[in-house]
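tl;dr need the bound structure. longer version: we got a ligand (sodium ion) that a collaborator sent over and nobodys looked at where it sits. i said id run it. heres the input, straight from their email, havent touched it
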Amino acid sequence: KKKVTAKTLLQMKAAGEKITQMTAYDFTTAGIIDTAGIDSILVGDSASNVVAGNQDTTPITLEEMIYHARAVVRACRHCLVVCDMPFGSYQVSREEGIRNAIRIIKETGAGAVKMEGGKEIAETVKGIVDSGVPVVGHLGLTPQSIHKFGGYGLRAKDDAEAERLIEDALALDAAGVSAITLEKVPAALATKVTSMVKAATIGIGAGSGTDGQVLVYADALGMTQGFKPKFLRQFANVGKCMTEGVQEYIKCVKEKSFPSDAEAY
Ligand code: KIV
Ligand code: NA
């Protein structure tokens, strides 16, 4: 299978082939997901929650994102690796955003960066794209702004908010993004945006009308405890599988059946 690039996403949109994306933050998990045949792995700043156990994505640093992305890139032979730019790494100025996007590409080998926001970051996005770095936008529920919004509810519910989201999507499209993540917005709005932009749309909690879908791997594979929003489907129960494996290990050690003579030197 040919290596997926940011450009491939546009070709897939044109061909009507759904884009599959899942997060990963480490070498071992990324290797499993890439080998399974995914189109893209997102090194999400959700690593802040999933890996570090924080309440939100705001604390994770650029250095930490680079550490995760390097590990993921080392495992990926086929899929496109997209690395989230963490909170604070592109909001201060256009120059700082460009410098940090270039750092991510140089130090990790990722194929694109992802940034949250619309019109307010469009100039920065354009500068990064012009520097040669593909950008994925992210609209709707943008977790880096959690303190501003005060919750993780559905976004763009009313007409004014929906209109604003369309304007943001068009601004990102004009700035040259390769794709736009649409998180937790009404399905009809996501479908409408998908038809209006050149970029590929990748939805999470945004219905079936987007060009692709993304899920956090720990949620999709049943490893996250107590997180079951309506949009989430659990495609496997890896958490249960791991629990049973750990319990079996404990049992075998306690009853002295592990290691056996055959497992000793
Ligand atoms: O960080 C992340 O996992 C994300 C996805 C939910 C789109 O941004
Ligand atoms: Na993210």
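gonna send this back to them w/ a short note. Residues 159-175 form the longest helix (17 residues).
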